[in-house]
User: Fold this.
Amino acid sequence: MLGKHKVGACLPTFGSCADRFCLSGYGGGGGTMEEILDMASQVEALDGLELVSERHLTDDNIDHVKSLFSDRNLEICMVVPDLWGQQKWTKGGLASVDPKIRKEAVADVKKAMDRAAGVGCGYVDVWPGQDGFDYPFQADFTSAWKWLRDGIAECSAHRSDVRVLVEYKPKEPRTHCFVSTAAKTILLLQGIENVGCLIDFGHSMAAGENVAEAAALLSDYGYLDYFHLNDNYRLWDDDMMVASVNIPETLELVYWMKKLDYGGWLTLDVFPYREEKLPAAENCLAWMKALYDIVDRAGMERIENVVRGGDANEASRLVREMLTGDSPSQEKE
Amino acid sequence: MLGKHKVGACLPTFGSCADRFCLSGYGGGGGTMEEILDMASQVEALDGLELVSERHLTDDNIDHVKSLFSDRNLEICMVVPDLWGQQKWTKGGLASVDPKIRKEAVADVKKAMDRAAGVGCGYVDVWPGQDGFDYPFQADFTSAWKWLRDGIAECSAHRSDVRVLVEYKPKEPRTHCFVSTAAKTILLLQGIENVGCLIDFGHSMAAGENVAEAAALLSDYGYLDYFHLNDNYRLWDDDMMVASVNIPETLELVYWMKKLDYGGWLTLDVFPYREEKLPAAENCLAWMKALYDIVDRAGMERIENVVRGGDANEASRLVREMLTGDSPSQEKE
Amino acid sequence: MLGKHKVGACLPTFGSCADRFCLSGYGGGGGTMEEILDMASQVEALDGLELVSERHLTDDNIDHVKSLFSDRNLEICMVVPDLWGQQKWTKGGLASVDPKIRKEAVADVKKAMDRAAGVGCGYVDVWPGQDGFDYPFQADFTSAWKWLRDGIAECSAHRSDVRVLVEYKPKEPRTHCFVSTAAKTILLLQGIENVGCLIDFGHSMAAGENVAEAAALLSDYGYLDYFHLNDNYRLWDDDMMVASVNIPETLELVYWMKKLDYGGWLTLDVFPYREEKLPAAENCLAWMKALYDIVDRAGMERIENVVRGGDANEASRLVREMLTGDSPSQEKE
Amino acid sequence: MLGKHKVGACLPTFGSCADRFCLSGYGGGGGTMEEILDMASQVEALDGLELVSERHLTDDNIDHVKSLFSDRNLEICMVVPDLWGQQKWTKGGLASVDPKIRKEAVADVKKAMDRAAGVGCGYVDVWPGQDGFDYPFQADFTSAWKWLRDGIAECSAHRSDVRVLVEYKPKEPRTHCFVSTAAKTILLLQGIENVGCLIDFGHSMAAGENVAEAAALLSDYGYLDYFHLNDNYRLWDDDMMVASVNIPETLELVYWMKKLDYGGWLTLDVFPYREEKLPAAENCLAWMKALYDIVDRAGMERIENVVRGGDANEASRLVREMLTGDSPSQEKE
Assistant:
């Protein structure tokens, strides 16, 4: 737990992170789900883990997986239909030009929803990462958007006890993904029941967004459901440890989570390619805890006054005082 | 004219383009509106010019300006309320934290609408460039968004014969502008009557969008009203000559304009800082004409087949054949 | 052949391209070296392929590999020591903080040089992709640079019949690679004998360079030895097909290759993740041929005059006329 | 003073910052040099100001300017030849294709050197911001580079008591500036006497550099002479207040300044467009002081150990502990 939030992690956080140059992974992570669970259970604050449907969770292993988790006092905080890791999705899933593939994508999401219900998880994370295009003249944008909406609508109608969250990302693995920003996700979801948004810090940064602003917009429309936490250098989804690059904006997000009364999971989605996995997770959570403490110490009212004032000098002074602990009274002009 | 499109230009296209390092402007452009009109009238294909309300068009000079234009057989294709060039907008206009400034911004847009009606122009271009923020903790996103919506709604209700177009841009002059992407513009406009979107090629690129995709999305929602044409290196609004950097994506946009049945103005918004102004405008229009001719020669059906297929090799071959004139039959495998 | 240039390819051009989300690869490529060679030999213009030392070329299989190539009338145009694909390089190779790893990296480059000599190839491509850092405070820049220089110097002194080329790249797989730009590569190589630079179009673009400018700088210092061709959207090494995004800059590079009298290999380094491999290679080479033809048709003198003049209007007109075939005489002012 | 460093500022720090949309400036700054000096003298830590030759400092006003400064106990820390703000530099200065312009640029630098000597300042800052290109095919890179080198060499030979510093920047006002990175600056300066480099934090970030790494490289070659401090969002020279966005990298730079034994000026180069100028300068200096204190508290040895280890977890923990004041002992594994 971190304050009122349950704390989760995606499996790569404890896995043997690979990239296109080192397909074996850089090592040090768990291989089997059990190994990863054992590692994860050593992180004190951690309450749950995400699972990928079909890869980790199948119709046949539901009971086994449930006991693996309950034995370690962990929850399954998210079930993720695999819409990106198999060759059948090479040219897209929900928005494939091939109707059979689109149908299969919807079916796989539904299966993931059933499995989520089976393990007591109320969400699936639909990340249409392969739905997009790489080259000019490669996509019929109008049809793709319609297919995405139809697919999401069909999935979300499948059962009402599992909410369909959509995770946006501007690029990677495609050079252009259709569901690229918070605003576009809202347009995608409008008029569909039982849906929401999963906002990933790094995806939002890579989309050129201020993450807190994206969260506020999603909250306005009732779609702020779930957070993936990490960090990057703004141009790519580097999946780095939390607050390792962008401290002021991560701090600003923490303030806005409180202001928007976000009460859901805080889930790590980091790829510690070259790092020992346990300390990496602990570093992330220590930063999050530090940022929450900083906001608590400053007090919502003091921050609110600065935010409402719109003055950059006040904002700059606030961040410095919050981070370095300088007393506000000493510097007033 | 360019095909069925009327062709316009913003005044900086023929002006003495300044930047923050050379405030006098790099020279070579027209000083007065008359001088600019005289230059513009030498560009054969040009049908109209945009004017900035208050700067070029006031309550007192409407008749004079009308005759300046009619004498040269030019139209006023857009009236732009000045929401960025005066010190009163330093910390924002429609979304200023100061209610007096917000009121003034709305009033200035209404005045611009009246003047547009007075000169027979059916549009105003609301570009809220100063509405945004520069630093973390400097903006109350929720209030700002509400103020923007309220402001646009009040303006658009002022009179129904002038349509309020909103122009989005991700940054500059603020490091973050609130109305930053096509999707966010749609959210801003939803539920308001008599509004639409002005899409600027370079703003869209700088927002990480594929411009044709943004146009298709806007068209889907009924907001594809007007185009600003130019080019850049993707990261900043360089306001360069059309197609000087990004040829395939400009060509893709031309195809989509036809497919989406866009029939409105094609207006240059270039800043030829160091260039002679007339040849720069002519270069832009020559590229646009060349790209239209290329699409016509290829034929919509052939292009459509490639776009629908979603195959990158076909897309790449199509672009090469269209641009270099190679015959498709010679290369079929 | 393409004009006077021999034409090569890296193996991923015909391989089953994987990324971190689809580790199996997206399919359609060759699995074994033989399969890839068979595919490659179907591309008419192709003269050679690059091999990765240890992965494809070992002390034991040199004769076998030579005959595989000679049977298909192909050359081995480059031997690449594997300094990135094994777990031992997780925290760097030539610039690792561990002296044993640095020693091993140098040894592996030397082995690759011996194998290159064994197969009649005069180059190795040292790409220190794992030498860099991801986080602030993670690198001792001064030591790393010294280690890199010492390592390159030791390798290049190993034997004079194989030239050590260094390939720069600003990021990926590290968020920051030490050898990041053409200018930094020159600094790295200065004072060392028997070395040069391999310039990869996409790496150069991702580094914010104009590729032709980087080539001219390298040529000035005597280090312009070898080209990798591909394309991307400027921010990441997308390894796309040649000229699919950036046509004017690729055309400008072709002109400068001629002007700088570059006579070496033109080698494809594309990752056609979702594309059929043969047509992708052919598309690349067709674009390169088209651009060479375009430069030939325009004539070096005409281009030279524009380049020397420094006028953007002339440059823009030149590109348009070269690409669309418009006659220059018709548009002169 | 800040520790052993004298503290300076560029004049826009206290000026009425304009951009291309608001040419009058956003207001609140000083107009005349006297007004700016009066403002600057209220910033306690400030020791000096930069002046632009010809604009602020002419052959005729040297004595007057000296007394303006000495009256306020301020130094002139830099004299900047104006190579960017006049129409004669529209197409470049030191690297103009016009030999008369090149000659004039050299002459203006020499005049600035004489004036610097006249006011007891040992540096001029040569920022060749207009030397570059905007469009493909617009520049003869080889000639431009030669002209730049020749020009710098001629200037630096003019007199040995004023050192010619070159300030690099990747873009703006040109879309591509020739002198774009630290490594390229070193190449430019090699073999020329009496030269060095001025490194601007934001220029370095916009060039994709880690600023501390750039500083280490410049120091290695003996060219680390002077710092401009500010911050930005990595993609553009936003000239924001110090540490307002990138805290870990600014902190890393402070550590490296100490490690490299940099003893020169710390000069603010911020454009507080919409901010009150005095508090903005004070915010910058308060952050710099806080970061120096943080490094002092942590101790060079402790930081050195982490930097030498190359472990991201240690680096991440170090930054968090330094900034939040957590005790290292409590978290050791």
